[in-house]
DNA sequence: GAATTCGCCTGCACGC
DNA sequence: TGCGTGCAGGCGAATT
């Protein structure tokens, strides 16, 4: 799923394929994925221009144009970028044709993804009330965003208003590494546990990027390669599967004990 | 405002 | 083979 590490990979892909080429043609295949902009506005903004750089924040990718506007991309569950021939993308929602004859497709089977325009990412981040980026945040701010929070730790990690970038899979991994039970009320965690959580979050995200966001390819000691029905905890024992905040959650009851 | 639940969307795995 | 069912999950709206 496109979480923060995925977005880092997408950003790299975008930067390597789609910068500095004039856009010759724009087709909004599925206008329903547009937010705050019409098909016409998207076309008008992109046509005849080129992308000059990109920025990732949380699970968003902002593509800056040479007219100082930004195309906002959010990939939902199944979204990704494809650069190549027009028929290489199975579920295109936005098709951009460059002067080179190559296409960039925003492909998203389930249409949970979103596209829009903004004058500046910072403006958008503020509007959306996104929390600090999980890869950029320091420990002081990390403690601050969870201060006075009484909710369960996992839904809080997933809450993009609290912290931007973490999704269901990596939330499970981070909690597993930190030996924190997903249902633990945030205010019951002590100083050592917050430090542990912070350090593991950074380590897991960096490791995921290093492994090209292939969760199943992570080292054996990680939860994600075992995160499937019948999967075993790499430290021994069976993994439990429970819903937390409506999300499927895997954890190891031996390692991750609930605090009351 | 904060916590919690639910529905959107659709490909795919699974069972009969 | 083919059909029906339910799951996957990011996010925002609705509810408490």
From TrEMBL:
Gene3D superfamilies: 1.10.8.50, MutM-like, N-terminal. Residues 2-113 form the Formamidopyrimidine-DNA glycosylase catalytic domain. It comes from the Archaea. SMART domains: Fapy_DNA_glyco, H2TH. GO terms for biological process: base-excision repair. One of its GO terms (molecular function) is DNA-(apurinic or apyrimidinic site) endonuclease activity. Pfam families: Fapy_DNA_glyco (PF01149), H2TH (PF06831). It catalyses: Hydrolysis of DNA containing ring-opened 7-methylguanine residues, releasing 2,6-diamino-4-hydroxy-5-(N-methyl)formamidopyrimidine. InterPro entries: FPG_cat, FPG_N, H2TH_FPG, Ribosomal_uS13-like_H2TH. This is DNA-formamidopyrimidine glycosylase.
